[in-house]
Write a structure and sequence with these properties.
With 195 residues, the chain is of the alpha+beta class. The chain has a single domain (28-194), classed as Four Helix Bundle (Hemerythrin (Met), subunit A) (Up-down Bundle). Helix content is 49%, strand content 14%. It has a three-stranded antiparallel beta sheet. The N and C termini lie far apart (49 Å).
Length: 195
């Protein structure tokens, strides 16, 4: 009787180990305080911003101009449904500044000038996301300490904490692609709440 009982316990342990994958709890869902209209329009703008960042990584002036135009259109389309009209003045004013930065990027004569305006664009978008307490996703503010003349810093936003530097990029005349991961996370916007 003992061998049968021992076999039963072994079978029970084996079965519970094999079912451990099935018993894992699902990832908690992020619950936003904002409307889907607002979050979707902001995410659309951030997708354009990510494409603009990647164009800087690739030193592609044509793509930079194209994505700057797309981002301006998407910023114009942000849907403030659900916001109190009295609370959106400061965020809207910050978006106006960001659109000015985008205009300067498209008019910039060289990539260094465009990158300077990209830095101020980033600061304005960061301020906007912070002011509206954007809570659909985390957004990282990242910093390159040697973005300009190896001495001045530059910033960009990223949905991930890994570094892909748009200031030094893949085709830097001095460093090539060796400095693509130069930089670090300076801050994070994280108003997400998980349930």
């Amino acid at each position: 009787m003992q061998p049968i009982l021992a076999s039963f316990f072994l079978l029970l342990i084996f079965a519970s180990c094999n079912n451990s994958d099935e018993q894992k709890k699902p990832e908690p869902k992020i619950t936003s305080k904002h409307s889907n209209y607002f979050n979707n329009s902001v995410q659309s703008a951030m997708d354009s911003y990510a494409a603009l960042t990647e164009a800087f990584v690739n030193w592609d002036s044509t793509a930079i101009t194209q994505h700057a135009g797309e981002l301006k259109t998407r910023l114009d389309s942000i849907n403030f449904y659900g916001f109190d009209p009295q609370t959106i003045t400061a965020p809207v004013d910050t978006l106006v500044l960001a659109k000015g930065d985008l205009q300067a990027i498209t008019m910039g004569s060289d990539i260094t000038t465009k990158r300077h305006h990209f830095d101020t664009l980033t600061q304005h978008l960061y301020a906007f996301l912070d002011k509206v307490k954007y809570d659909a996703k985390k957004v990282y503010l990242q910093k390159c300490p040697m973005a300009f003349n190896d001495a001045e810093s530059g910033h960009w936003l990223s949905p991930v904490d890994s570094i892909r530097n748009p200031y030094l990029g893949l085709h830097h005349p001095k460093y090539g692609k060796a400095m693509i991961d130069c930089g670090g996370n300076e801050a994070v916007i994280d108003f997400t709440s998980k349930k």
